[in-house]
Amino acid sequence: ATGVNNVRAQVSYTPTVGNMATRRNFQDMKFGLFIHWGIYGILGDGEWVMHEKKIPYDSYKRLATFFNPQEFNAKEWVAFAKKAGMKYITITSRHHDGFSMFGTKMSPYNIVDATPYHKDPLMELAKECEKEGIELHFYYSLLDWGRADYAFGSPIVDGKPVNGDWDSYIKFMKDQLTELITKYPGVKGIWFDGDWERKEVNWHYNEIYGLIHKLNPSIMVGNNHHLAPKDGEDFQMFEKDLPGNNTTGFSADSKIGTLPLETCETINNSWGFNINDRHFKTSKQIIHYLVNAAGRNANFLLNIGPMPNGKIQSEFTDTLAIVGAWVKKNGEAIYGTRGSTVPPQDWGVMTVKGNNQYVHITTVPQVPYIFIPQLKQTVTKAIVLGTGASVKFKQQPEGVFIYTAGLPIDANDTIVKLTAN
Ligand code: FHN
Fold this sequence. Notes:
Blueprint: H1 17-29, E1 31-35, H2 49-52, H3 57-60, H4 62-65, H5 74-83, E2 88-94, H6 111-114, H7 121-132, E3 135-141, E4 156-157, E5 160-161, H8 166-183, E6 187-193, H9 205-215, E7 220-223, E8 236-239, E9 261-266, H10 283-295, E10 298-304, H11 314-330, E11 338-339, E12 348-353, E13 356-361, E14 369-373, E15 379-384, E16 393-396, E17 399-403, E18 414-420
Parallel strand pairs: 1-2, 1-10, 2-3, 3-6, 6-7, 8-9, 9-10
Antiparallel strand pairs: 4-5, 11-12, 12-13, 13-18, 14-17, 15-18, 16-17
Helix pairs in contact: 5-7, 5-11, 8-9, 10-11
Bound molecules: ligand FHN.
């Protein structure tokens, strides 16, 4: 404390030993399933439909009265994620439309109280995830298009919306977050989004993050504010971009910090269910995204928008079954790895685990070799991952040549495993 003007020194956050363990495990998991699911799914036009089609809130709310996902089956979703090789699920507990997809006591506008379904799918999912060893994270929107206390569109003065009740809104969020952290077994992460809508308000992050870490210090907090990480956060995320690329302009501050990294992308061009979106990524594109994220030391969180009946469309299940088969075969070079000190190259990226360096050749060069610059270790052995066939290499002071002629080329990623000390 300064004493003189009674301004307390900002106490910075120190993660607990348990939190550091969650972070390490998070980095080991590498591949996660992002799920955007809500009442907007009925319209089949993405999760922004209320805002984009200018649907008045009171009309939009009617969707809840016939949202009845009778075919939702937590077992199927978790089995689908596992089959795809994913180790965790991040699901929208509440998106910008303000509808809570979980049984909350803090607002009647939730799936248990406002729909004919009357059940809590997130509780089912939490239980199934715990049973199946899949980690669960909750996405939570800071932005709310409907609540009177948030007062969407209101001018902001002194860090608060003049037409709303900011203290009430902050309290509401704290109460909901308390529910999400204390009622759902095994939750390991909170994924905030929507900060970017109001840059000039006081989000009370110290209190919100402090509360989360007080309730469960092992929980990881991340915030898709598109800025450099703030005090109290446990991981840094990049939306629709590999870390540092900033091709979408979402990551205004694309600097890569020291926290665990995650990059999220959609399986087609939509987050929420969009019946018209047939821009499906191929299994190869998804595998490349995963490999490229891992090579940049980041997790890949791949999003799907399930249908309003609770089913996942076949285009997604088919593609991800192929991805899953690939990851099953090549997981050694993905799970538990970290990005290499060798930066991404024209031919691909590298991942590291202990004394092993995995060379991911995603673009086979015209010349019969690839060159790995800046490898500090001494390579003692090079083999094809999977077959164990030895691979010719030559190490020079400036780097290592790997001879690709005759290598069994995998259409997705030819992986050479180096033993290097
Ligand atoms: O507006 C949202 C969008 O609907 C979606 O949830 C994505 C996920 O990263 N985040 C926001 C845009 O930054």
